[in-house]
Amino acid sequence: MFIGIDIGTSEVKALLLAPDHTVQGSAGAALTVSRPLPGHSEQNPHDWWAATQAALAQLRAAHPQAYAAAQGIGLSGQMHGAVLLDAQDQVLRPAILWNDTRCAAECAEMMAELPSLPDLAGTLAMPGFTAPKLRWVARHEPDIFKRVAKVLLPKDYVRLMLTGEYVTDLSDASGTLWLDVRQRSWSDALLALTGLSQAHMPRLVEGSAPGGFLKPAVAQALGLPAGIVVAGGGGDNAASAVGMGAVDAGQGFLSLGTSGVLFVVTPSYQPNAASATHAFCHALPQRWHQMSVMLSAASALQWVTDLLGAPNAGAVAGKAAALSLAERAASPLFLPYLGGERTPHNDANVRGSFHQLSFDTDAARLGYAVIEGVSFGLKDGLAALNAAGCSLNRLSLVGGGARSAFWAQQLASALNTEVVTHGSSAVGGALGAARLAWLATGAPQSAVCQSPAVEARYHPDAAEQALLEPRYAQFRSLYRTA
């Protein structure tokens, strides 16, 4: 048995994976996000550890024998979060998260001071990344910055609790702006931009390699065997790719969760930062990937669901799906930039907006506009990946949005590619984390990294494409006035 733990933004998820690839059980514990000021997004790292313990306790209670037989633990997590520790491993302040936009000015300064940054880091400097957060802390909270002894990513704070070691994997490290992604090592030049050194960084390992071992006292408290391996793991997207079996060049997936991500595996380091894509290390050795990221995806649908007072997002999607093509064509247009945007705009200050509202606009049309706006944002991302040299003819759809057949069909038409879903067998980062734990015990990749069964297939629909194409052209023109 192998345990996968995914430290998400809204929930910590844990699962048990058997050697026959069946998921024996899963559990979750909710998290909340603090937004003390506009553009700020923070969480208390202690909450991640408490939620991890709660999720593991649920697994232990529901599957005691399988749980006790675990041979390894893998970790996946939200990327870019800055966990600041002092010399006694005490948390100095709440972690600044991936969707925090406070440090746009610091990003501009870093780009100006080191023009080679995009080639080294595989991306433009953006407010979501870890390094500019530390530059912001140095400027606005200098007393805290002076006390920083280690900077960890979210999943690696949980690793510290499990193992007592400072370790991260290369896929998660890629999202810090401190990694030389081509060389798969920390960059002194990038670290110098934030007044830090390699002494402040965790040790680097491949995601499929051991990244520590479970401490005896923690093992006893959790009811697990002492000394079992804790794999290097991966950032949430790279771990999800391992869970989807997307490990070879040209394979990819679309994650429709809090954020929207298009992920494609590449055989080498292929940066194209000008289009605001990311070229990062994969969680497996000698592999990289390209990624486009939009910051508001399924979270935008949840936002409009709450705004409308609907019972759940599925109800809003259901009303949108019931609209005729003519009614969809008369719906408003929505720019989905509720918290700024990355690919392709790299604009922390842009915000979402509805356009072409009328007296005919009702809840169904507002819901449709939001779903379509997110699809168009993902279409922007695919265009950026194509400009970076990627070519796709199929995408696996994962995340909460994958539950909507209507949205899956719209994405197939908007992106002009086959979209497949995998049902409950695909559980994202937690499954990938469990597989990385399996690999860390010495299992061969060919036996571990299999693709899950396809539950449903969606192909581009010509009538829907005829509707979407002119609306997408309008959508693109509206960004310039947003």
> What summary fits the major beta sheet?
7 strands, mixed
The percentage helix is 25-40%
Radius of gyration: 21 Å
Unreliable stretches (pLDDT < 50, length at least 5) are none
User: Shape, please?
Assistant: globular
Quickly give the structural class. alpha/beta
What is the number of E strands?
24
State the separation between the terminal residues, measured CA to CA: 50 Å
**Average pLDDT, to the nearest integer?**
93
What is the overall number of helices? 19
The fraction of residues assigned to DSSP E strands is: 15-25%
Structure description:
The chain has 19 helices and 24 strands. By secondary structure, it is an alpha/beta fold. Strand 22, helix 16 (405-415) and strand 23 form a beta-alpha-beta unit. It is globular and about 65 Å long. The chain starts with a strand and ends with a helix.
Brief summary:
The protein is an alpha/beta fold and 482 residues long. Helix content is 38%, strand content 20%.
Which features characterize this protein?
482 residues; alpha/beta; 7-stranded mixed β-sheet; 19 helices; 24 strands; 38% helix
Topology:
Blueprint: E1 2-7, E2 11-17, E3 23-30, E4 42-43, H1 45-62, H2 64-68, E5 72-77, E6 83-85, E7 95-96, H3 104-113, H4 117-121, H5 130-140, H6 142-146, E8 150-152, H7 154-163, E9 167-169, H8 170-173, E10 179-180, E11 185-186, H9 188-192, E12 203-205, E13 210-213, H10 216-222, E14 229-231, E15 234-235, H11 236-244, E16 252-256, E17 260-266, E18 278-281, E19 288-294, H12 298-308, H13 313-321, H14 325-329, E20 333-335, E21 353-355, H15 363-387, E22 394-398, H16 405-415, E23 418-421, H17 429-440, H18 445-448, E24 456-458, H19 462-479
Parallel strand pairs: 1-5, 5-14, 5-15, 9-12, 16-22, 22-23
Antiparallel strand pairs: 1-2, 2-3, 4-7, 6-8, 10-11, 13-14, 16-17, 17-19, 18-19, 20-21, 23-24
